[in-house]
Amino acid sequence: MSGTTTAAALRRRAAGAGANRWVVLVVLCVSLLLVAVDATVLHVAVPAVTEDLKPGGIELLWIVDVYPLVCASLLILFGTLGDRVGRRRVLLLGYALFGVASGLAALADNAQVLIVARALLGVGGAMIMPATLSILRQVFPDRRERALAIGIWSAVAAVGAAVGPLLGGFLLEHFWWGSVFLVNIPLMLVSLPVGRLLLPESKGDGEGPWDVVGALMAAIGLFGMVLGVKRLGGGESVGSLLTVLPLVVGAALLVAFVRRQRRRAHPLVDLRMFARPAFSTSVGCIVLAMLALVGLELIAAQYLQLVLGLSPLETGLRLLPLTFAAMAAGLAGARMLRRFGPRRMVCFGFCLTAFAVVLLTALGRTDDCALMLTGFVLLGFGLETTLFGAYESMLSEAPQEQAGGAAAIGETSYQLGAGIGIALLGTVMNAAYAPGLSGVPGVPEAASSSAGHSLGEAYEVAAQLGGVAGVALRHAARDAFVHGLHVTLLVSAGLLLLGAVMALRLPRVMQCEDAGAVEVPAPRDAAESRVSV
């Protein structure tokens, strides 16, 4: 047996019995599934929520967007809290909060209550997510095994992305829209006792104070920036004080946050990790990939339902090939990474995704199943290839003693990309859609202005007008939405090609270096056990 093989075997034995670490992986994947399902389950319910609660354009964006934004804002805060009081403890508290917030969302009778409930779900998600990658990094010190574990982990994320719209569509066929949130409660009730029984407790070194002020600065700064973008996307003037002020304050707080972290002896985010090209490039690739994926999924769900007239369940089924392709890419990711290396793998993923996005610009007012199937399969495989290579490179580049911080940064970039993607691509979509509704024959200017907020609202206005004017408005709105979809797809393709260029800074080959030993206690000792780094 070679020295490298012997070292890998010793690391695996030091990490505990083989069954134990793979059981831990299963529990972590279930945790991820809980969060991933909630991130997408609302997408197919947007038209039903719009019809029932009648939110404004900005409120509708917040209903969908507040969950990933709150989650992204608080990941570092709860990641560092887990280092102090125990990651498993924070994880289980997150399960409980997730269940309570799900019940509140299901019973919401207006847009404001639903926004608050989605924000609380984001808090719960922020408590759950950092534990998955940080524990995975510690439990699998050998890079070859870790690559396989990340492949399984990312495949589960793809399953959650698919189960969300499909489950949401099924529930909407039989129940009201609030039922899409109730599915979280049984998952939480199972996850709480299983997590307490099987997951080992783990803590960091606990050095330095917990910088709550810095975490709040980052959260408020992020919200300020996105609020400004949302107002611009809603048609507000660039010179409006309520648009400029959030942008300026948000940017100032984020700059102050970075300066504060550089001065502190024990920062929330160790910015020195970003000096490593592979780490910073991987984070940027995750942001760009998620920016394209989540925004496109939301718009695609509206296209399938409002333009093609598919039911919510049919919409979920149409999006299923994307997820199957992503699952295949995740499971094959470890082998591809060893053969091609991070640089070629991530670059290829971005280019394949960009090609798929451009291919989908051929979609129109009529249903083209073959084109949609081809585009979604290529899109899912390309994006998952990108995300897998970026996540694995980021975790492997970070020192093992900083695994928690690296995991929080990775999950923050994931959620940040998702939140900004919805806001940015939603803004592009609205900017391309609204002008197409001006000057429709027989439609009053006030009605055209209301119809310009969203396609769902345009259909409502058309129904109120009735007659020839209503039919004309409905057709114009549908054509304008398809045009906006094409513009949004082209913008996404440009961002993806930018990601392909960025990926050229990643390492050419997958380097399997020796890692330190990690102790994973047996499940029966989970109550008093601890992962030592």
TrEMBL record:
Record's keyword terms, sorted: Antibiotic resistance, Cell membrane, Membrane, Transmembrane, Transmembrane helix, Transport
Membrane topology annotation: Multi-pass membrane protein
Q: Which GO molecular function annotations are given, in alphabetical order?
A: transmembrane transporter activity
The UniProt entry, under InterPro entries, shows:
MFS, MFS_dom, MFS_trans_sf
Superkingdom in the source lineage: Bacteria
* Any single GO CC term annotated in Swiss-Prot or TrEMBL for this entry: plasma membrane
SUPFAM superfamilies noted in UniProt: MFS general substrate transporter (SSF103473)
Kindly state a single biological-process term from the GO annotations of this entry: response to antibiotic
Where in or outside the cell is it found?
Cell membrane
- Where is each Major facilitator superfamily (MFS) profile domain found? 24-511
Where is this chain primarily localised? membrane
Q: Which residues cross the membrane?
A: 22-48, 60-78, 90-108, 114-136, 148-168, 174-198, 210-229, 241-258, 279-304, 316-334, 346-364, 370-391, 412-433, 480-504
UniProt-recorded name of the protein: Antiseptic resistance protein
Native species: Streptomyces chartreusis NRRL 3882
Gene name of the record: qacA_9
